[in-house]
Each structure stands twice: as structure tokens, then as C-alpha cells.
Amino acid sequence: MGMVEGLWKSGEMPPCDGLYRPDDTGLELHVDGPGTYHPDAGQPIPFRIGGPFDVAQALEGHYVDEVNTCFEGPLPDGSGWMSGGGGGMGNIGYLARLNADSSLRWVAVMFLSNPFVSVHYEGMRATFTNDWGNLLVLDLMTPALD
Question: What's the rounded Cα separation, in Å, for the pair 41 and 68?
């Protein structure tokens, strides 16, 4: 079992922005914090997936954060589950895609997104809402998120 999978099974997540996979590979995430968007709740949260990073180095010497789940439910195509919530002091948000057997496919940790509290689907396009009413729209068929 890898470090990321072990953390997830323990109800914990990495503390640094990134898209983490159970094989201990990761992709950088660039997510602007919702504070800029707070006055106009319901605004999009900027989200960009970057290149690979060294997961072991990112975890080295850092604390881990407890997963606080706000929602979990099946994906519209029946291929698995989606989970979302937060952790930390209220600024951290996470989204996790789970396989049909509920094993971790990936977890996206966003230090300044705030917790995600709900999801709405149009096909495999998901609109996640954080606790300030800001929106993150992701196509779950995008290769990095599939």
C-alpha cells in the first residue's frame, strides 16, 4: 500500500495542493482561494492541473490533515463514487474520486478552496459548490480526472 492510499484509509489526506493517486504519483494543482470571490458568492473557482511532482517529497516533514466528508455519492455513469469536503481550519477543500469498490482513484487537495459541500452533475460534468457558494466545474472525463 502506498503512502497516499494509507493516508486515505486512515481518514487523512496530504496537506499540500495536488492531485494524488494511490500509486503515490501526483499532479500539481493551481487553485486560487475563494476569498477573492467571497463578495460575489456563486462565482467560479479558478482551477488548473499542472505537471507531475514528487509526492514523497511533498509529504516529507509535513503534517497530514483529517478528512471531513460533506458529501459522498455515486457517479452518474455508475463507474464509482465522488466524495468531497474539507479539513484543517476551514480553508482546505478536497474532492476524491473512488472506484466502484470504494477504493481511492484520486484525491485532489486544495489548500485555499474551502470545503466542498455539494455536487451537481450534467452527465460526467460536475459542478462542486464550496461553503461560500463558489463553484468548481470539472469534466470528470478529462484524462487527468478519469
Answer: 22
- Measured between alpha carbons, how far is 96 from 22 in angstroms, rounded to an integer? 11
Tell me which amino acid residue 130 is.
Answer: N
| 35 grid coordinates | 476569498
By C-alpha distance, which of 145, 108, 141 is closest to 31? 108
Q: Are 13 and 3 in contact (CB under 8 A)?
A: no
N residues, the chain = 146
Instruction: Lowest mean pLDDT of 1-15, 27-41, 85-99, name the range.
Output: 27-41
Give tens-digit pLDDT for 10-54.
Answer: 999 988 899 999 999 999 999 876 655 556 677 788 889 999 999
| 143 Cβ neighbours under 8 A, 6+ residues apart | none
